[in-house]
Amino acid sequence: MLIMMLNAQVKPGADSVWQFFQFDTSSVYLKVDTSAQNIWQIGKPQKTFFDSAYSPVNAIVTDTVNAYPANNYSWFDIYVGEFNNDYFPFIIFFEMKHKFDTDSLDGGYISVSWDDGATWNNIIHDTVYYEFMNYGIFPGYINSYDTNLYSPGDTLFNGQPGYSGHSAGWQKTIFCWYLQAVKKMYPDTMRVRFNFVSDSVDNGKEGWMIDDIKLYTVKMAGNINERFSGQFKVFPNPATTNLTIASERIHIKSIELYNLKGQKVLEKSIRKKNADVNVSTYESGVYFLIIQTNEGVASKRILIQN
Predict the structure, then answer these.
(1) How many whole angstroms separate alpha carbon 293 and alpha carbon 227?
(2) Under a CB-based contact definition with an 8 Å cutoff, are residues 45 and 64 in contact?
(3) What CATH number is given to the structural domain containing 277?
(4) Which pLDDT tens digit goes with each residue over 226-284?
(5) CB 59 within 8 A of CB 209
(6) Which of 93, 136, 246, 251 has a CA 20 to 30 Å removed from the CA of 78?
(7) Angle, alpha carbons 267-286-277 (nearest 5°)
(8) Does residue 274 fall inside a structural domain?
(9) Phi, psi at residue 227, to the nearest 5°?
(10) Within 10 Å of residue 11's Cβ, how many Cβ atoms?
(11) What is the value of pTM for the model shown?
(12) Pair 50, 41: CB distance under 8 Å
């Protein structure tokens, strides 16, 4: 296990890496299925397409040597909490490198459990805490913005959306839960499960290989206090041409707008209670609005559609 503990108060666009799973050393936060049918193995890949790890020497593979069998279900879990992410549960980013080679109905998908494995949801359907995500993004939302996550239409034989077919070499995929509100309503641990399934047809393909899973945070701005977010109205949302920011009592010092990559696309001094911003030149997508005031910092998620 390699842990790089960086400064928690980082600049927008920078990240804090809390865990880096390169599969060359063991980790207490990684649990692999121990059932007899499990085919996930950690080791040096020795297949035709799966010929090497992304970062040598090891990766986690649906068997390092053999093709995956028919009628298989295998999984491994990553545990996440305050014990390995200082921003849990507010800012949880995953990045992974992976290859896949399967029949069109076989493949891999990712699920999440908030109750220690009692129930699971595919991450693109994770709405367990949706009612509290008033200014956040979660995996199903970020899916639309070039992060190489599968879509609801990519259905495997068991009805789950997932990865199947043959990837064009290594792919980088990012998924996240960001700026979730009301921490006390969340459990102290989440489990993220990487599932592999195959139907009754044995096709001699290689399966799924994953390497360099990074658990990290992207800090959009320091000292965000969600208590102030309710003091501001931001409309229309979605926005096309102009965005209005209004408060009945709090004067705005400045505003900043960030895209999903953590890049600041706008910074503007205000010095009053209300502001209008022209957003007609920005690409369509999800953005984070950071509102600086004398009383604290507020954040809002907005959608721009141009």
Answers:
(1) 12
(2) yes
(3) 2.60.40.3080
(4) 455 668 889 998 899 999 999 888 889 899 888 766 677 899 998 888 989 999 999 88
(5) yes
(6) 136
(7) 35
(8) yes
(9) -60, -30
(10) 13
(11) 0.69
(12) no
